[in-house]
C-alpha cells in the first residue's frame, strides 16, 4: 500500500512527534483477551497508556486555585488527582465504565466465540473504553456504534462531544446508521465516496450544498440516509427537485468539483493554504515520549496480566504437569534400575536411548508455545506501539516461563534420575537438572521465535515440526557423527540438540559407574559407549553444552523480540472491492434496474391497505418476479420463559448469595406469520439470549417455560427444518465463495424433491435480492483478514438462511455493521419476506425512522430480562408512543426518532428518576392481558391441523449429505494453500534433507550401526512428518469445528457426513505426499530396488502419514482449545516415541509395559518398514550373524508377519478416524 501527501498536527509533521501518543485509534474489530474481565481490561489499558500531560495540567490548576484561594469539591479533587497521577485505585476506570454503561458487567469475563462472556454491544464499548481511558487528545474511531442501541450510541457520542469541547481535543468518528439525534451532536460532517471528499464542513451547510446542486432531503427522511443515497447511482435521481431540467447522474468527481467552488470548500482551501502558526516547542499533547509510562511500569503491567492469565488458564498448566508426571512415571517403570545393567555396549546404548528420550521429550513439551503465541498475535499487534514496545511483551513471557519450566523439569528429573539408575552423585543429578532446564528454555524460545516469524498457525505448526526434525536429525543420536556428509557437518556443529545430547551423555558416562573396562579393552566402558555413537568423551563438554544452550536461549529470545518489533500482522485487511460506482451492491446497469423495478411494480399485488416502505417508493415490496418456493406459515408462542446460569464466581466474591443468575425473568410473547417483530432493548438486556433459548441453541444453563409452534409443543428436530437463524457472529467457511456457500446451504436444507435448476435459480434470486450478485465469486475469507468486508459478511449470513426457505426466521442484529443504505436493502428484503407470510423476528440497534417503522410489533426488554412493552407499533409508532407517554415519561419531540426516544425513556436511570417499575406497570396493563389472551389462543392447534412431521430427520439422504459435504471440503482444501501448500513444501524439504543426510546408506549392511542408521531414517521420518501432519491439521479442524457447530444446529447434516468428508478428503492429499516423500527418499538413501520392497515402503508410509493426520483430527476434536490439543498430542508423541522399539527393543521392555508396545501404532510402522526392507536379508554382520537373524533376536522382527503388520497399521488409521467421528458427534465445547 502506498500513501502520499502530508499530515500535520498543529502544524507539526508526523515525524516531529510520536503520533501513537497523540492520537488514539478505535478499530472496528473487537479484539480482547477473553479470560480477562471488563474492569481488568480497562485497568490494563490505563496502566499502559499513563496520564500524558495531566500532571502538568493539575499542577497549573492547583497553582491557580491557590492564587484565587479556592477549595475544590472533594470528589472532583480526588478524581483529578487520580486521573493525573494514575494510582492503583479504580476511580478513573469506574468513571469510564459508568459513562459507557459497563458498570453492570464490570466483573464479567469478556469471553470469545467458544466461551460465554459479555454481549456484542458491551464488547464494542470495552473497545471504545480502552482508548478513552488514555490521555490522547485526537480520537479516530471507526464504526464505534456497531452493536450498540441508539440510546447508548447517543450517550457515548454526547460524552465524546463534551470531552472534545471542554478539553480542546479532536474526534473523527465514522458511524453506520447514526440516529438523527446522534448526528445532531456532531459539529462537522465529512462525506466520502469512491475515495473522494464530497463534502467536509459544518453539518448545518451540508443540505444547503446539495440543494444548490438540485437535490433535496424529503420530510421524515434522516439526513444521514439522504447523504449516503444522494451519491449512489441507484438512488440519486429520487432526490432531484429541478422539474424544469432533465435529471442526469452527477458523478462523485463532479460533486467534488462543486464542493471546491462552494463557500465552505473555499474556506477549507484557504485554511490549508495558510501555514499553521506553531510555537518553537511542541504542544504538550504532541509528545516525543514513545510510551506513556516508564519501562519498569510497562513490564510490571504486562507481567501482572500474564500472571493473571496463567491463573485463569491454570487447568492448561495442570494438564501439562500431569502429562510430564505421566511420561516420567512410564519412563521410570520401563527403565527401572533393576532392569538396567552396565555390562556391555548394548546396555550403554539403552542408557543413551533414555537420555535421548528425555532430551526429545523436553523439546516436545514446549510445542504448545507455538499455538499459544500465534493465538495472542492479533491482540499483540493491536496493542504494540500503542500500549507497549515489543520487548516489554516478550520479556515477561520469557521470565514467567522459567517457573513453569522449573516445575516440569523438577517433576521429570526427580521422578526418573535415581529410579532409572543414573550415577547417584548429587552433583551429576543437578547437572542433568540444569541442563534439561536450559534445554527447555531454549526450545520454548525457539518455538516462540518460529511463531513470531511465521505469524500463521498453519505455517507455524508445520515449520515448528520441521525444526524439531532438523534438530533431532543433526543431534548425533539418530545418525552417528562419523556418518554425516561434509555438507551437513556445519549443521551438526550448530545444532543445539547436539550440544544437549553431548552434555547429558558425558555427564553420565564419565562417572565412576562406567569406569570399568570390557574384556579385551583398556578404556572405560563409558568411553567405549560414547565413541560407538560418535559422541565426544571429554567431561568439560558438559559446561560447553550448557553454555551453548543458554546462549541459544538468549539469541532466540532476542530474535523473537526483533521479529515482534519489525514484522507486521499477516492479517492485511484486503476486503473485496466495490464494483458498482463505489458501492459494490449490484452488477446490473441503470437501464436493467429501471426495467426490472418497473416490472416488479406492475406485478406486485397490494397485500395490505397501507404498504410500508423501507427505501423509497420505486422498489417493490414483493418478489413476484422471482422463483417462489412453497412453505407453511407458522406461528411461535412462548410463555413464562425463564433462563438462568450458575452464579459467576466474581459475583459470589462480591457477596452474592444466590446460586443462579437469572437472565430472562418470565418473558412471554408470540411471533406470527405476516407480522414483523422488533426485539429491542439496551445492550445486555437478554435479546440474543432469548433468541438462543427459543431457537434451542443454548448449550448450558437452566430453562423453564413453554414454547409452541402453531399450537403444538416445539420439537427441536422438526423445528430446525422450518427455522432459519441469522446469528450475530458471521461464521462461514473461509475458503468457499459466496455463491458456493449459498448453494451448499440450499442443497442441504431445501427439500430433496426440488430439482437442481430450480434450486440454482432460487439461490441466484437471493443473491440478487441482497445485491450480492457481483460478489458471487469472491471468497469469504477470515474476519479482519482477506476476503469479504464486515458489511458483506453480514449480508452473506442473511442469505445463507434465506436460501433454506424457512417459515420462521430469527435475525440477531441483521443491520449491525451495515451503512444506512445497506441496512435499508436488508430490511426491504425482510419486509418482503414477511409480506409473503413468513414469521420474522429481529433484534435491531439504532434503526432509522424508516427502518423502525418497517416493523409491525415491538418486543421491548429492559435490563434484567423482563418485558416492558409487547404490542403493535402503529402508524408512525403512535401506539407505542401513546403507551409510554401515558405512563408519564417525557413526551417525544417532533421529528425525533421513536426508537431512540423509546430507549431513552425506558432506561434504568429514567425508572429511578420517576420512581416507577416499567415491568410491573406493563404486567398490570390491558396490553399485557391482550398478549396473554393471544398467546393462549395461538397455543391451541387450529382445527383440522396436524403437528409438524417429516419422513426423514434431514432434507437429504445420508449418502447425499456425505457427497455434498465432500464437495465442500474438496473446494476448501484446494484453496487452502496455507495448509496443503505448506504440507507439500515441507515434505519435499524433509525428503531432500533425509536423502542428503542418509545418502546411499540403504544398502550398507556390514555393521549393526549401519542398520541403526537406516532405522534412524525411518524412525525420524515416521515421527517428524507424522507429527507435522497432525499439528498442521489441528488448526483446520479447530476452525471448521465452529462452522460445523452452526451448521449442525441448523439441521443441515449429521455428524457422520462431516466426519466422512473430513476423512475422505485427506486420502488423496496424503497419497500425493507419500509418493513425493517415498520416491525421493527411497532413491536417495538407496534402499534395494525391487517392486515388492518399494511397494511396502510406500504402503507403510502412506498409512502412517494417514493415521497421524487422523490422530491430529481426533486430538482437536477431543480438546476444547488448541493448547489442550497440543498437550494431548505431545503426550501421545512421547509415548509413541518411547514404545516405538527404536530406543528400547520390545525384549528389554518390562512385562508390565510390553502390552503398550503392541498397541503403539509407531511400533507397528517401524516393524513393517524394517522387516520389509531387511527382514529377508541374509548378509552377515561384523558379529557373524545375518541381518535377518539380528533383527529377529534383537528386535523380535519376523518377516513372515508382514501381512499382520499391514492389517494392524490400516486398523490404526480406521480407529483414529472413528474416534474423530465420535468426538464430533458427542462432544460440544461451544458454550452459549
Automatic annotation (TrEMBL):
It is found in: Membrane. The keyword Transmembrane applies. It is a multi-pass membrane protein. It comes from the Eukaryota. SMART domains: AAA. Coiled coil: none annotated. Keywords: ATP-binding, Membrane, Nucleotide-binding, Repeat, Transmembrane, Transmembrane helix, Transport. GO terms for molecular function: ABC-type transporter activity; ATP binding; ATP hydrolysis activity. InterPro entries: AAA+_ATPase, ABC2_TM, ABC_transporter-like_ATP-bd, ABC_transporter-like_CS, ABCG_dom, ABCG_PDR_2, P-loop_NTPase, PDR_assoc. GO terms for cellular component: plasma membrane. The keyword 4Fe-4S does not apply. Its main location: membrane. The chain crosses the membrane at residues 316-336, 348-367, 398-420, 432-451, 457-479, 541-567, 981-999, 1019-1038, 1058-1082, 1094-1118, 1124-1144, 1151-1170, 1201-1222. Belongs to the ABC transporter superfamily. ABCG family. PDR (TC 3.A.1.205) subfamily. May be a general defense protein. This is ABC transporter domain-containing protein. It comes from Aegilops tauschii subsp. strangulata.
Amino acid at each position: 500500500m502506498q500513501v502520499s501527501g502530508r499530515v500535520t498536527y498543529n502544524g507539526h509533521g508526523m515525524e516531529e512527534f510520536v503520533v501513537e501518543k497523540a492520537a488514539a485509534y478505535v478499530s472496528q474489530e473487537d479484539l480482547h483477551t477473553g479470560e480477562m474481565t471488563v474492569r481488568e481490561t480497562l485497568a490494563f489499558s490505563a496502566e499502559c497508556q499513563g496520564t500524558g500531560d495531566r500532571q502538568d495540567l493539575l499542577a497549573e490548576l492547583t497553582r491557580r486555585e491557590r492564587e484565587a484561594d479556592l477549595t475544590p469539591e472533594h470528589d472532583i479533587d480526588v478524581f483529578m488527582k487520580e486521573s493525573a497521577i494514575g494510582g492503583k485505585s479504580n476511580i478513573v476506570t469506574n468513571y469510564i465504565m459508568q459513562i459507557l454503561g459497563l458498570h453492570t458487567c464490570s466483573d464479567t469475563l469478556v469471553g470469545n466465540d467458544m466461551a460465554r462472556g459479555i454481549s456484542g454491544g458491551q464488547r464494542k464499548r470495552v473497545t471504545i473504553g480502552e482508548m478513552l481511558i488514555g490521555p490522547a487528545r485526537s480520537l479516530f474511531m471507526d464504526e464505534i456504534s456497531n452493536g450498540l442501541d441508539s440510546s447508548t450510541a447517543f450517550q457515548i457520542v454526547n460524552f465524546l462531544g463534551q470531552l472534545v469541547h471542554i478539553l480542546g481535543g479532536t474526534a473523527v468518528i465514522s458511524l453506520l446508521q447514526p440516529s438523527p439525534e446522534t448526528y445532531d451532536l456532531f459539529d462537522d460532517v465529512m462525506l466520502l465516496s469512491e475515495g473522494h471528499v464530497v463534502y467536509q464542513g459544518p453539518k448545518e451547510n451540508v443540505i444547503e450544498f446539495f440543494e444548490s446542486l438540485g437535490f433535496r432531503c424529503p420530510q421524515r427522511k434522516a439526513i444521514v440516509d439522504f447523504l449516503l443515497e444522494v451519491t449512489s447511482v441507484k438512488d440519486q435521481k429520487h432526490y432531484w427537485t429541478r422539474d424544469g431540467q432533465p435529471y442526469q447522474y452527477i458523478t462523485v468527481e463532479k460533486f467534488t468539483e462543486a464542493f471546491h467552488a462552494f463557500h465552505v470548500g473555499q474556506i477549507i482551501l484557504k485554511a490549508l493554504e495558510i501555514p499553521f502558526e506553531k510555537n518553537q516547542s511542541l504542544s504538550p499533547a504532541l509528545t516525543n515520549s514513545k510510551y506513556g509510562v516508564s519501562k519498569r511500569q510497562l513490564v510490571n503491567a504486562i507481567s501482572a496480566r500474564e500472571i493473571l492469565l496463567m491463573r485463569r488458564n491454570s487447568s492448561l498448566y495442570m494438564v501439562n504437569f500431569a502429562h510430564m508426571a505421566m511420561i516420567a512415571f512410564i519412563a521410570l517403570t520401563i527403565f527401572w534400575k533393576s532392569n538396567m545393567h552396565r555390562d556391555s555396549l548394548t546396555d550403554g546404548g539403552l542408557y543413551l536411548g533414555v537420555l535421548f528420550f528425555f532430551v526429545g521429550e523436553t523439546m516436545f513439551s514446549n510445542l504448545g508455545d507455538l499455538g499459544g503465541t500465534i493465538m495472542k498475535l492479533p491482540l499483540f499487534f493491536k496493542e504494540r506501539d500503542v500500549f507497549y514496545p515489543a520487548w516489554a511483551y516478550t520479556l515477561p513471557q520469557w521470565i514467567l516461563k522459567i517457573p513453569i519450566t522449573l516445575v516440569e523439569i523438577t517433576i521429570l528429573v526427580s521422578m526418573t534420575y535415581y529410579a532409572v539408575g543414573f550415577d547417584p552423585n548429587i552433583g551429576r543429578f543437578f547437572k542433568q537438572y540444569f541442563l534439561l532446564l536450559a534445554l527447555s528454555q531454549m526450545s520454548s524460545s525457539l518455538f516462540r521465535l518460529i511463531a513470531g516469524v511465521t505469524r500463521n498457525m498453519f505455517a507455524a505448526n508445520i515449520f515448528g515440526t520441521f525444526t524439531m526434525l532438523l534438530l533431532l536429525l543433526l543431534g548425533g543420536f539418530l545418525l552417528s557423527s562419523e556418518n554425516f556428509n561434509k555438507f551437513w557437518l556445519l549443521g551438526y556443529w550448530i545444532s543445539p540438540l547436539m550440544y544437549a545430547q553431548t552434555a547429558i551423555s558425558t555427564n553420565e558416562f564419565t562417572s565412576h559407574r562406567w569406569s570399568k573396562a570390557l574384556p579385551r579393552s583398556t578404556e572405560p566402558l563409558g568411553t567405549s559407549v560414547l565413541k560407538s555413537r560418535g559422541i565426544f568423551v571429554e567431561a568439560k563438554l558438559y559446561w560447553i553444552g550448557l553454555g551453548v544452550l543458554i546462549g541459544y536461549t538468549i539469541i532466540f529470545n532476542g530474535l523473537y523480540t526483533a521479529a515482534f518489533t519489525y514484522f507486521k500482522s499477516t492479517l492485511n485487511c484486503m476486503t473485496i472491492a466495490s464494483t458498482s460506482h463505489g458501492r459494490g451492491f449490484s452488477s446490473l446497469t441503470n437501464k436493467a434496474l429501471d426495467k426490472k423495478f418497473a416490472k416488479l411494480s406492475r406485478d406486485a399485488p397490494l397485500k395490505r391497505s397501507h404498504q410500508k416502505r423501507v427505501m423509497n417508493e420505486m422498489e417493490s415490496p414483493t418478489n413476484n418476479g422471482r422463483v417462489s418456493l412453497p412453505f407453511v406459515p407458522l406461528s411461535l408462542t412462548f410463555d413464562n420463559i425463564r433462563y438462568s446460569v450458575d452464579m459467576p464466581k466474581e459475583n459470589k466474591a462480591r457477596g452474592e448469595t444466590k446460586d443462579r443468575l437469572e437472565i430472562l425473568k418470565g418473558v412471554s410473547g408470540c411471533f406470527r406469520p405476516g407480522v414483523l417483530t422488533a426485539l429491542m432493548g439496551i445492550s445486555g438486556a437478554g435479546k440474543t439470549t432469548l433468541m438462543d433459548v427459543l431457537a434451542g441453541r443454548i448449550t448450558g444453563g437452566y430453562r423453564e417455560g413453554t414454547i409452541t409452534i402453531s399450537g403444538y409443543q416445539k420439537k427441536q428436530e422438526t423445528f430446525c427444518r422450518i427455522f432459519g437463524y441469522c446469528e450475530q457472529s458471521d461464521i462461514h467457511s473461509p475458503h468457499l465463495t459466496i455463491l458456493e456457500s449459498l448453494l451448499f446451504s440450499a442443497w442441504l436444507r431445501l427439500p430433496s424433491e426440488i430439482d437442481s435448476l430450480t434450486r440454482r435459480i432460487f439461490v441466484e434470486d437471493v443473491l440478487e435480492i441482497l445485491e450480492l450478485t457481483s460478489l458471487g465469486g469472491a471468497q469469504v475469507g477470515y474476519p479482519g483478514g482477506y476476503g469479504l468486508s464486515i458489511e458483506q459478511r453480514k449480508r452473506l449470513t442473511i442469505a445463507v438462511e434465506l436460501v433454506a426457505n424457512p417459515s420462521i426466521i430469527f435475525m440477531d442484529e441483521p443491520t449491525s455493521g451495515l451503512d444506512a443504505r445497506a441496512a435499508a436493502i436488508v430490511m426491504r428484503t425482510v419486509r418482503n419476506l414477511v409480506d409473503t407470510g413468513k414469521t420474522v423476528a429481529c433484534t435491531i440497534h439504532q434503526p432509522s425512522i424508516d427502518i423502525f417503522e418497517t416493523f409491525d410489533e415491538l418486543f421491548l426488554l429492559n435490563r434484567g430480562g423482563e418485558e416492558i412493552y409487547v404490542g403493535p407499533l402503529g402508524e408512525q409508532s403512535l401506539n407505542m408512543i401513546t403507551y409510554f407517554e401515558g405512563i408519564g415519561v417525557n413526551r417525544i419531540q417532533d421529528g425525533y426518532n421513536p426508537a431512540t426516544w423509546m430507549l431513552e425513556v425506558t432506561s434504568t436511570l429514567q425508572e429511578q428518576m420517576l420512581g416507577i417499575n416499567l415491568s410491573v406497570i406493563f404486567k398490570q396493563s390491558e396490553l399485557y392481558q391482550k398478549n396473554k389472551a393471544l398467546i393462549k389462543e395461538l397455543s391451541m392447534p387450529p382445527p383440522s391441523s396436524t403437528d409438524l412431521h417429516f419422513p426423514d430427520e434431514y432434507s437429504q439422504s445420508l449418502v447425499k449429505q456425505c457427497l455434498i459435504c465432500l464437495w465442500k471440503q474438496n473446494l476448501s482444501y484446494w484453496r487452502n494453500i496455507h495448509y496443503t501448500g505448506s504440507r507439500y513444501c515441507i515434505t519435499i524439504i524433509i525428503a531432500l534433507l533425509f536423502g542428503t543426510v542418509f545418502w546411499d546408506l540403504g544398502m550398507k549392511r556390514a555393521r549393526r550401526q549401519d542398520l541403526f542408521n537406516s532405522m534412524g531414517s525411518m524412525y525420524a521420518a515416521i515421527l517428524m512428518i507424522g507429527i507435522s501432519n497432525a499439528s498442521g491439521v489441528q488448526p483446520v479442524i479447530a476452525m471448521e469445528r465452529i462452522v460445523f457447530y452452526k451448521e449442525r444446529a441448523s439441521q443441515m447434516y449429521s455428524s457422520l457426513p462431516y466426519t466422512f468428508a473430513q476423512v475422505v478428503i485427506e486420502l488423496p492429499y496424503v497419497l500425493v505426499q507419500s509418493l513425493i516423500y517415498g520416491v525421493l527418499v527411497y532413491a536417495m538413501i538407496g534402499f534395494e530396488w525391487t517392486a515388492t520392497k518399494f511397494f511396502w515402503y510406500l504402503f507403510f508410509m502412506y498409512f502412517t502419514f494417514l493415521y497421524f493426520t487422523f490422530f491430529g483430527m481426533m486430538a482437536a476434536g477431543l480438546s476444547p482449545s488448541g493448547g489442550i490439543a497440543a498437550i494431548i498430542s505431545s503426550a501421545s508423541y512421547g509415548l509413541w516415541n518411547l514404545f516405538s522399539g527404536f530406543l528400547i527393543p520390545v525384549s528389554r521392555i518390562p512385562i508390565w509395559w510390553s502390552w503398550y508396545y503392541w498397541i503403539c501404532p509407531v511400533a507397528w510402522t517401524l516393524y513393517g518398514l524394517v522387516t520389509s526392507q531387511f527382514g529377508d536379508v541374509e548378509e552377515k554382520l561384523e558379529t557373524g550373524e545375518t541381518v535377518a537373524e539380528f533383527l529377529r533376536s534383537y528386535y523380535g522382527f519376523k518377516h513372515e508377519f508382514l501381512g499382520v503388520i499391514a492389517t494392524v497399521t490400516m486398523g490404526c488409521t480406521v480407529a483414529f478416524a472413528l474416534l474423530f467421528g465420535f468426538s464430533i458427534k458427542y462432544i460440544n465445547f461451544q458454550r452459549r
